[in-house]
Amino acid sequence: MKPCAAGLAVLLLSGAAAVEAELNDYPTEARAEFVFACMKTNGETPDALRRCSCAIDVVATLLPYDRYVAAETVASVAQAQGQAGMLMRSSALAKAALDSLRRARAEAEIRCF
C-alpha cells in the first residue's frame, strides 16, 4: 500500500470510529433499562425484545444521550404534583426537551413496531 493510501485508510477508519462512538454513546445499562420498560409495556416475548431493542437503537440515533437523560428527567419530574411538576410542564426548555423525546419515540414506534 502506498504511503498516501495508507494515511487515507487510517483517516477513514478513525473517522468511522468517531461516528460509531457518537452514535453509540448510550451506556449498556441505559439501553437495557429502556428495553426492559418497553417489554413490560409491549409483552415479554422474543418479538417484543427485538422491537424494543430496535426502538432504543432508533432513539439513540436521533437523540444524544445527554439530551435523552435530560428529557427523561423532565418527563419524570413533570409527572410530580405541586410546584416542581408545574414548572417542568410550563418551562419552554422543558417542553422542548419533552418534544424531542416524544419525536424520537414516535419515530422508533414507526420504524420498529
Tally of individual helices: 6
| Quaternary form | single chain
CA-based gyration radius: 18 Å
Judging from the principal axes of the Cα atoms, what is the shape?
A: globular
- The tally of beta strands, per DSSP, is 0
- How much of the sequence lies in strands comes to under 5%
Residue ranges: pLDDT <50 for 5 or more in a row?
Answer: 8-12, 14-19
Largest β-sheet summary: none
The string of secondary-structure elements, in order, is: HHHHHH
Number of domains: 1
Report the mean per-residue pLDDT as an integer: 85
By secondary-structure content and strand pairing, the structural class works out as mainly alpha
| Spatial gap, N to C terminus | 46 Å
Q: Roughly how much helix do the residues carry, as a percent range?
A: over 70%
In short:
The chain is an all-alpha fold and 113 residues long. It contains six helices and no strands.
